[in-house]
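Researcher: Go.
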Amino acid sequence: MSPWWIISRHALPNAIAPIINVTLMVCAQLIVGVVIIETLFSYRGMGSYMVASVVLRDLPVVQASGMIFAAIYILLFLVADIISVLSNPRLRHPNRVPMN
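Model: Structure:
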């Protein structure tokens, strides 16, 4: 058997779950971290709009943008968990306890 077949058949299914998990978690942190970047570099976007709303004490806008950022964060974590369960063969087929 070729080494590529062994790696793709045995190593890759067990190694892909942590890679996907970390990648999507970093993406979630980057998306939520846009507030700091837009404020720091004076870009116009949702992050700077949220900071301006905090300064103006516009509570509905702050709540709505906070909910949007939280929903994106939770959604990406959910997708990471689902993909990690689907890609890991040990998590797809858990050991069953025999009934006595």
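Model: Residues 7 and 13 are 9 Å apart (CA to CA).
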